[in-house]
Every structure is written in C-alpha cells, then in structure tokens.
Fold this sequence. Notes:
Structural class of chain B: alpha/beta
CATH class of chain B: Alpha Beta
Structural class of chain A: alpha/beta
CATH topology of the largest domain in chain A: Rossmann fold
Strand content of chain A: 15-25%
Number of strands of chain B: 7
Largest interface: A-B, 43 and 38 residues
Number of domains of chain B: 1
CATH superfamily of the largest domain in chain A: Thiamin diphosphate (ThDP)-binding fold, Pyr/PP domains
Helix content of chain B: 25-40%
Oligomer: heterodimer
CATH class of the largest domain in chain A: Alpha Beta
Largest sheet of chain A: 7 strands, mixed
Radius of gyration of chain B: 17 Å
Number of helices of chain A: 13
Largest sheet of chain B: 7 strands, mixed
Radius of gyration of chain A: 21 Å
Strand order of the largest sheet of chain B: 2-1-3-4-6-5-7
Number of domains of chain A: 2
Number of helices of chain B: 10
Shape of chain B: globular
Amino acid sequence: MSEKVLMKGNEAFGEAAILSGCNFYFGYPITPQSEIPEYLSRELPKRGGCFIQAESELAAINMAYGAAAAGGNAFISSSAPGIALMQEGLSFMCCAEVPVVVLNVSRCGPGIGGIQPGQADYIQATRGGGNGDYKIPVFAPSTIQEAIDMIYEATYLANKWRNPMMLLTDGMMGQMMEPVVLPEPRKLLTSEEIPQAKPWALSGFDHKNGQRSLIRALHMQPTDLEIQVEKIFTKYDAMEKELPAYAAEGLEGAEIVFVAFGLMSRLVREAIEMLAEEGIKAGLIRPKTLWPYPYAAFDELDFNSTKVVISTELSKGQMIEDVRLGVEGRLPVELIYRTGGVVPTTPEVVERAKKILEGLK
Amino acid sequence: MKPVFTYSEGMERVETSYCPGCTHGIAHRLIVETLIENGELGNAIGVCPIGCSVQAHKFMHVDMCEAAHGRAPAVASGIRRVHPDKPVFTYQGDGDLASIGMGEIIHAASRGERFTTFFINNGIYGMTGGQMAPTTLIGQRSTTSQDGRTVEANGMPIRVAELIAAVDGAAYVERVALDSPAHIRQAKRAVQKAFAVQKMGVGFTMIEFISSCPTNWGLSPVEALGWIKEKMIPYYPLGVKKDITAQNVQEEEA
Lengths: 361, 254
C-alpha cells in the first residue's frame, strides 16, 4: 500500500486501471472524462502497456474487444453519449464471453445533454443498454478511494466471469480531488504467458497444443443461441448471489430512509445530519452495486419507525424502480431528484424530505 | 497415382455455407495456403465480421474471432497490441468495409496498423440478400436499386484499393480478381506479398479481391465469372496500387 496521495478523480481512475493489471486502454475524448485518456496516453507506454486514441467510441470498444479476446486486460472509459455508442460492443462481449472494465464518468442526457454530472444512465447501465439477453454488473463508488478499489476488484471479476464489468460514476467525481491510497500493482501478463493463463484467448493454436480458439457472438441456429444465453445466465445467476453490495446507515428508528448512490449519497449524508438537528431521524441505504441490485438491504428497514423510503437521484426517477422492487409495497416510496446536470443543495434535499414527510401525516 | 489437388490442411473438412460459384472459398484457401507456406498457420489470428464470411472461422483452420459489422479493423488493432509478432488479418466484405466500417478501415490504414485486410468486393450485400453496396456498379440491379443503381440517387461506386492506397499509413495495397486461373495465381502472389510486408512492420496492407456472388447477381456461376471480367474489372482495375517496399528499393537504387 502506498502513502496517502491527493489525486484528481479521473487521473486516479486511470492509475487504478494500470495498478489493477489493465495494460490496454482505448480512448476517445469526451468531457468530463478526457483526463483519463490523457493520463493513460502518458503513463501506459512507460509502464508496459498500450494506448490508442480511437477514431470513435465504436472503434474504442471494439479495440478493447480485440485486445481482450487476444488475452489482454482491457480498460475503457467514456461519458454518457459515448457509453451509448459502446453498447454494440458490450452486448457483443457479453455473448462472446470476453472481459473488459468499463467506466462511465456520466453527464446528463438525453441527447448530447450537458457536461454537468448526472445519474441518468442508471437504466442504460442496469437494464442492458444494448440488444439482447445479457447483464453487466455495475458498481457505484461514492468516493475516489472507493472507485479505485472497485476498479481493482472489477478487473479481477471481469476475468473471473469473462464478462464486462462497469463502474457508474459522474462528472463531479471525475473532476474533484481527494486523498487516496493506491493498491499494489498486479503483475501484467506478457504475450508469451497468455496461452497458458487464458487458453480460451486468441494466440494461435500452435501455442495451445493445437487447440483452436474461436470467439463468437453469432449463433445462426436458434437452439444454439438459446444454449449460449442460458450459459451466460448461469453466470448471472451466480453473480446475483455473490455481488450485491450496499451500506446501510442509521436505519433503526429512522422516520425517513433515503436511498442514494455515488455522489448523491454524499449529499444525503449531510442532509441526514441537518435533519437530525431538527429532531428528524433519517437513515441511508447506499447501493454499491446497481446490478445486481442489493434488494436484501430493504429487509433491514425498521418497519416500526420508518414512514417513507425516498429514492434520491440525479435523474428523473430511474433507480426508484429498483427501490420499489426492494420495498415490495411495505412502505410508501417517494422521489427527490434534480436532473439536467443540476446538483441539489443539501438544504434543498432537507426541505423536500420534510415536505414529503408532512404530506404523509 | 499422385493426387494433384487435395484439401488444404488449412481448411476444415466441412461443407462451407457459401453458394455454388461463390469465390469466398478460393480466397480462404489462398490465405491459409500462404500461412502454411510461411509456417504460421498455428501462429495466426483472424477476424471475420458480419457478412457471409462471419462464419469463415468454420472453414479456415486458424484462431479467429467474429466482429460486429464494420468493426474488424478496430478489433484487429486491439489484437495486434497484445500480440505484436503474430500474423493478424481481417476478412471483410464490401458492405462491411466500405459502408458501415469505412471509418475503422481508413483509420487503421492511417495508423499504419501492422495487419492485413482481405477485402472481398463482390459489389453487393450477400448475407442479407442482395442489397446495394457502396461498390455496386452504376446500372447494376439489386434489391434496393431495383431499376439499377443511378449516380443521381446513390453516387458513384467507391474504389477502395485506390482510396486506401492514398492513405499515408498504407504500405501495400493490391487489387486482384478471382475469375480465372491466371488471376487466382496473381491473387496468391498478392496474399504472399501482403503477409511478407506485414511481417516487415512497415505499415498497413490490404488485398482487394474482385469476387463473384452468383446468387444475388441472378447469374449462373459461369456467367458470374464473365460479369467480373466484363463489368467489374473495367471499373475496378487490377494491379498494385501501393508498395512502399518497392519505393524503398527504387530510392536505394537511385
């Protein structure tokens, strides 16, 4: 473990990717994540890795697919509309069972939208933004340190499951600085080590005792495709058991329970302190994974005290669908949100929460 | 008795999914024969994107991956970064390369990517059933140009080999045809040259094969070969469009 260092979010995300063993990065400039390709263009060539500035996000995700299909650990980042363009590749990689770590430093949409932070890619991220039956685990860090740790873990999980892993963060997290402790670097695979370490990967059959590798996402026979979909869903079933993660704070005796992830959870924590000063006890469920969603968190609610569960979002009510699925009708579910890249102030969250509480009385 | 023609060890012993008279099989064979001659069949990696040839991995006995429509040059660029010393190739049709994948192919050539693209130009979308391609000739009928392609509606067909040759990162570009034994022998030499230049590491290499699609052209296999000779080759002239290794030789001589 290193000393504590002060790092800008985007640069820390890039550094975390290198330390986690991702030595292949393919980037395309888009605000507010352009510091990631800038950082990695400078650092990767010095440290046994490789950077290409792709001609588009479509090319970038497909370069990542090629590198990962060939046994490299690939990392890729973009922001909301750029991630939308990458969906073709992500769907393809899920079907072909090829790992990659994808980071969405999200801005607000729809369309080109704006460059301010948003969480309006929630449904795109968690419901499969591309075509077909597939899933991508989505991690939602609330600090830069947590993002570093999640990138490190996601690199391991992507290889373990041979499936893309995504981190959903936002422009404010990408642009702010925080003190962080960097992890120990993982050893990078050399080209010669790949046939043994990843026998499924493309490396030429002479290096695998004559066994050819074929990496495919096309199945012309419906029954063949059905078998492949069922196969990847056995992995998703296992992920649904293993991966859901959340933090619950102050649920016991709480009148209000907020549900918030990432940047929004930090604002909500302040709001909870302000409400406490006014004698209103509130708690927080902070999902760390958005798919699989930690529905079990809602079984921890204090049903004697809690009057309302409030999904608190930087989007026009996207996560609220999962909150309702978790609450299962046991309590009213309400929404506090700002959208378009507007981040609410803490007093604004407090006032809206109080109004919701009064409305229930 | 000595057999004069047998299966290539580089081809799987299966029936192909290609129509009678289609020249994909010839192009496949030229590629794997060359890799065998170079002792590199088991070291090579191929990329086959969507189009009839997306299933080329069922027929060519090399490590291969499929790719989304048009994206093979990006995929091969990624593969190349992981395996800097292995033969890497893409095998792309004209809808794939010259329409949806035009961005990827130009930029791969521009970066001087050290892989070889085998470009099958049969002037039509095969897999989807005979729609107009960027390479469909003026006057040629397709399911989306039913009275024949017109300049007014669709512009002129794209001459890809000349286009790629104009890109600085391209090292070797040749257009060949698969309509006659003499042309096929020349095509084999072109494939050999492309892999040799790839190995030299001096830039991007591409061979354009003028190919037949009897099914979607509505012609018999023999008529289709005649169409290549009479209609396609006049618009798509054969020959070496770029060879920087020859330029180097000339410079050295000068």
